[in-house]
Design goal:
The complex is a heterodimer of chains A (about 260) and B (about 575). Chain A has eight helices and ten strands. Chain A has about 260 residues and is of the alpha/beta class. Chain A has two domains: about 110 residues, 3-Layer(aba) Sandwich (D-Maltodextrin-Binding Protein, domain 2), CATH 3.40.190; about 90 residues, D-Maltodextrin-Binding Protein, domain 2. An eight-stranded mixed β-sheet of chain A has the order 4-1-5-10-6-9-7-8, sandwiched between helices. A two-stranded antiparallel ribbon of chain A has the order 2-3. Chain A is globular and about 75 Å long. Chain A starts with about 20 loop residues before the first helix and ends in a 5-residue tail after the last helix. The N terminus of chain A is likely disordered. Chain B is an alpha+beta fold and about 575 residues long. Chain B has three domains: about 220 residues, D-Maltodextrin-Binding Protein, domain 2, CATH 3.40.190; about 140 residues, no CATH class; about 130 residues, no CATH class. In chain B, helix 4 links the parallel strand 1 and strand 2. Classes of the chains: A alpha/beta (about 260), B alpha+beta (about 575).
């Protein structure tokens, strides 16, 4: 519409002001409100945290999520203004999802130099020791990791530790699920099983399999929460500061003790 | 497993014999003799002297027998030897089981930081690059070894350790005069080139006719660029194979940052004169007043976004695009390290001598049939902002580091292992395996003279003053773990073309300034950062020294014959 309309209540604005009709103004206001609403919705959008079953860190008991990391996450986010949604999916898929999708994080994964540039990191969430277990009735003497070179070692995809051993030239067989390795070792499909000590202990207890103490505890990893590379710096810093405070006020030590894990 | 592991059996044996100490000591002595004869040869010590050292270790380790300790280092040949061979020998001789873990250098730093942050004793000792010396002396988290060996570590300090024999102590000593780390291995970043190709008469003639001077070891970046162009664009093929006049790596990865912070900026001449690092502005572009960092940006007196820094990054990017193999931009430090061995690279502006052991393997395309290499290492060429009296390149000094939050008994046991792997008994053999020398006595030994022709110039370098001029990151950098990540994150944006070099470096310098400010606020102290006020760039650029004003003219290319180039170190 151009010019004045006789039937309109419209009063021309003084010269110098922008000429906007009330209807247009209303529409603009609605638009602004919608925009503000969508921004606040975006802000309130929970972070999607992906994890995988690894007792005692994270497990599903019926429909309930339990474990050390589940409790740690609850505390972590309670110390921030952020919300989150925790889902269980296989590790490899979780890592690929986080590499591609904004608003996603995965934990726990090994923080390594090779992975450093692919994610933003909230770290350290877990310090894990890895051991080489042999069959119950077979002793494989190991003083150094190099002593394991003649043997086939089982590990699982995406764990980081299997990849580490492969990189060093060891013979490694990777499975998609860590729990499968217990049976493989029992059946002699490989001679040594490389696993995180805490979860190995839990798996052996649950499956009623005893391999005893590891032949060698050969590696330590820092496991962390890896988030989408483009995660906003404010979110990252809020989470990192919250994690730091959990170490400083003794929360982490108490949590580890509750789960029988020695810090 | 139910049956007994080797470790358990040996420990049981040690325990059983503890009550019969004479037999226990006899078993250990026997083990020591076996290792000395079978493995620890050659040595600068006589067998008797070696056994004196070993007997001391046997005696000093008594209170720690049966302990398992855990140490960590990066993954290079030297540390693989320690983790696989020396840790085993130490166990059999002392009864202390050392798990020596190997991981990426960036991981070592992350783990060390995590131990400081969480208070959890993740490792009993670290072999950590001396680049962290500026962090360590300010942090109050690291044991000052010079104090330790006089007090809590006195009983476990090897009488024949001979600290003065270590060539890298100046890199691991803080401005407070205290020794914070003990060098375990050292390697330098030197110019690497195909000596055989450079000596071909046809190539020499062609190069001279095109560029007007001799094909030889480049002394400046212009000559390096000319040689890169010559092999990549003019020669192109040798014996039917595509060849390149330049090799590098640029994958977005922590190691991209090292390329710049380790050496590229120092060779370009970003910093001030001074050794081991420029003062008051170092090669990271950080300016200090006394020991206090006051800024990295030119606006605060630093040089991280100075014309010299822009020149350094521009040349890196230009040469990578024009003269390196296409794959180079997708490679990291480890992957790129293998390329010179393929026999298609004519020169590399700097190359980590930690790879010498890998590049002297018989049968490689870069080795002669008599076991001598076809390549040589020489001083790296320098950029147009470089001036005499400045550091000329980077040297890595992986060094034993004890953290204060490790329980004392574990510190002491770890300190025994640390000294064992650098002791004169084993260090010459270790040097021959990994080629990362730390002791003057090893470097000057007859054995090293015999090996020299087979090592492409490594021995000559370590016998020269070059070993003092190629230096690690220094004490201007107050938080290496916190600042190192900025390098690869900001430089990669420039390499990927997301921002111009100047604006990428402006962002980088501003981020470092902010980090320094936060550090100063969170941990104030005598040497904590305190930023200079912002000034106009010209205010600082017009003063003498770094940050240096722009130099528009390029010096003419200059080369030297190999022997003359090497003599520059003398």
């Amino acid at each position: 519409m151009s010019g004045n309309s006789k039937n309109s209540d419209y009063v021309a604005p003084p010269p110098g002001l922008i000429n906007i009709s009330p209807a247009l103004l209303c529409r603009a206001l609605v638009l602004v409100l919608l925009l503000l609403l969508s921004v606040s919705t975006l802000r309130a959008e929970p972070l999607n945290i992906l994890t995988y079953e690894e007792s005692p860190y994270a497990l599903m008991v019926g429909k309930t999520q339990k474990g050390l990391l589940v409790d740690m996450l609850a505390e972590l986010f309670s110390r921030t203004s952020l919300r989150y949604k925790l889902r269980f999916i296989p590790l490899k898929r979780a890592i690929i999802t986080v590499e591609r999708k904004p608003g996603y994080c995965v934990l726990p994964i090994v923080r390594s130099q090779e992975r450093e540039a692919n994610f933003q990191w909230i770290s350290p969430m877990l310090v894990s020791r890895y051991g080489l277990f042999s069959q119950e009735k077979r002793s494989i003497p190991l003083v150094t990791l190099n002593d394991a070179r003649p043997y086939k070692i089982g590990s699982f995809l995406g764990s980081g530790i299997g990849e580490y051993l492969l990189d060093l030239g060891f013979k490694v067989e990777l499975t998609s699920l860590s729990a499968l390795n217990l049976h493989k070792l029992k059946r002699g499909r490989f001679e040594l099983w490389a696993a995180d000590l805490i979860s190995a202990r839990e798996m052996m207890r649950k499956q009623g399999i005893k391999f005893g103490r590891p032949e060698l505890v050969f590696y330590t990893s820092i496991r962390a929460m890896a988030c989408y590379r483009g995660m906003p710096a404010e979110q990252l810093s809020e989470l990192q500061n919250a994690l730091l405070s959990m170490y400083q006020d003794g929360f982490m030590k108490a949590l580890y003790l509750e789960y029988g894990v020695d810090m | 497993m139910v049956s007994l592991s080797l470790r358990f059996m040996v420990l049981l044996l040690f325990t059983m014999l503890a009550g019969v100490s004479a037999q226990g000591a006899a078993l250990q002595k026997h083990m020591a003799e076996k290792w000395a004869a079978d493995e620890f040869q050659p040595s600068t010590l006589t067998v008797n002297e070696q056994m004196q050292e070993m007997n001391w270790f046997i005696k000093a380790s008594e209170p720690y027998r049966g302990m398992q300790i855990r140490v960590v280092s990066e993954r290079i040949t030297t540390h693989w030897y320690e983790a696989s061979v020396l840790a085993k020998a130490f166990f059999e001789i002392t009864g202390i089981h050392v798990v020596h873990e190997l991981t990426g250098e960036d991981d070592v730093i992350k783990k060390l930081s995590a131990q400081i942050l969480t208070g959890q004793n993740i490792y009993d000792a670290y072999i950590n690059d001396s680049d962290l010396i500026g962090t360590h002396f300010r942090s109050d988290a690291v044991v000052a070894l010079s104090d330790f060996i006089k007090a809590k570590g006195a009983d476990v300090t090897l009488p024949s350790l001979d600290l003065q024999d270590f060539i890298g102590l100046k890199f691991t000593t803080g401005p407070d005069g205290k020794l914070y780390q003990l060098p375990d291995q050292q390697f330098a970043n030197l110019y690497w080139y195909r000596h055989d190709w450079f000596n071909r008469k046809d190539f020499k003639k062609r190069f001279k006719s095109r560029y007007g001077y001799e094909l030889g070891v480049p002394q400046n970046w212009q000559a390096y660029e000319d040689i890169a162009e010559f092999f990549s664009k003019d020669i192109k093929e040798i014996d039917g194979q595509r060849v390149y006049g330049h090799m590098d790596y640029a994958k977005t990865d922590p190691s991209l940052g090292w390329r710049m912070s380790d050496a590229w900026f120092s060779m370009a001449g970003v910093g001030d004169r001074g050794l081991p690092n420029g003062l008051p502005v170092d090669e990271w572009g950080i300016k200090v007043e006394q020991c206090r960092p006051v800024g990295a940006s030119v606006q605060r007196g630093g040089a991280l976004n100075s014309p010299a820094a822009v020149y350094a990054v521009d040349k890196f990017k230009e040469w990578l695009t024009k003269y390196a193999p296409k794959q180079a931009s997708e490679l990291n430090f480890t992957q790129a390290g293998q390329w010179p061995g393929k026999g298609i690279i004519a020169q590399q502006i700097f190359w980590y001598t930690a790879f010498v052991a890998d590049l002297t393997k018989p049968g490689l395309a870069v080795m002669n049939s008599d076991g001598t290499p076809k390549w040589r290492i020489a001083p790296s060429p320098v950029g147009k902002y470089w001036q005499s009296g400045m550091k000329s390149g980077y040297q890595d000094a992986g060094s034993w580091t004890l953290l204060k939050n490790t329980p004392l008994k574990r510190q002491q046991a770890a300190w025994l292992y640390a000294q064992f792997v650098v002791s004169k008994t084993v260090s010459l053999k270790k040097t021959l395996v990994g080629l990362t020398p730390i002791r003057l006595s090893d470097i000057e030994s007859d054995v090293m003279s015999e090996r020299a022709p087979y090592l492409g110039g490594l021995v000559e370098f370590y016998r020269s003053r070059g070993r003092d001029v190629w230096t690690p990151t220094g004490t201007n950098v107050p938080d290496y773990p916190g600042l190192a990540g900025y390098w690869w994150q900001y430089i990669s944006q420039i390499i990927e073309g997301k921002v111009s070099t100047q604006s990428g470096l402006d962002n980088f310098a501003a981020a470092v300034d902010r980090h320094l400010a936060r550090l100063g606020e969170s941990a104030p102290g005598k040497c904590a950062p305190k930023l200079n006020p912002l000034s106009k760039r010209d205010f600082w650029l017009k003063k003498s020294g770094s940050p240096k004003a722009v130099i528009n003219e390029s010096p003419a290319g200059k080369t030297l014959p190999y022997q003359e180039a090497v003599n520059v170190w003398k």
